[in-house]
Amino acid sequence: MSSQLTLVVYSRAKPGMEEELGKRLLTLVEPSRAEEGCISYDIHQSNDDPAVWMAYENWRSEDDLALHFTMPYLRAFADRKDEVLAEPLDIRKFSLKS
Question: Could you report the per-residue pLDDT of 24-41, keeping only the tens digit for each?
């Protein structure tokens, strides 16, 4: 069985902070994709509600995801998230079944 994990993270921007949240999320893409355990890392914005953003991530293993959460650029985002988020992040973890 595969140990691959998919992470889907929903975030909602404070009113007027939609673009700023998007900018901050997009700065995470390149360094995250460069991590050895990252299979894919993409950011999406809702077509129906521009305040809603989604990160769709695939990781090789739970250990790789745990390492990702320690990265300085992700820690920096987390430290300042309350400036732009209207509510806590909605983080959902999925396991690949095949």
Answer: 999 999 999 999 999 999
